[in-house]
């Protein structure tokens, strides 16, 4: 059984913004190669921070699994950094 816990817009914002980062990574990856993928993920990470801070301006009312939306950018930022490391080591 899959249990998803969210408050406010937490369920909608995170998949949309992480999806925007993945779509940007695919599009830029096609245009610019591997570095475009990292740039696309970085764009999604910045969007996640900006929109998360905007919706949680006063209180952390929009969460997914108890984590405010803007803090999910750390997870996507990790994948961005990991993709850069993979590019540099290959």
UniProtKB/TrEMBL annotation:
Highest rank taxon of the organism: Bacteria
Keywords: Membrane, Transmembrane, Transmembrane helix
Transmembrane segments: 6-28, 35-52, 72-89
Protein name, per record: Uncharacterized protein
Source organism (scientific name): Actinomadura keratinilytica
């Amino acid at each position: 059984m899959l249990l998803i816990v969210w408050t406010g817009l937490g369920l909608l914002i995170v998949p949309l913004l992480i999806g925007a980062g993945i779509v940007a990574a695919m599009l830029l990856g096609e245009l610019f190669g591997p570095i475009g993928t990292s740039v696309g993920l970085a764009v999604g990470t910045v969007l996640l921070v900006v929109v998360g801070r905007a919706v949680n301006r006063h209180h952390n009312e929009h969460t997914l699994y108890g984590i405010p939306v803007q803090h999910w950018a750390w997870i996507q930022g990790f994948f961005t950094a990991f993709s850069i490391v993979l590019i540099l080591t290959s």
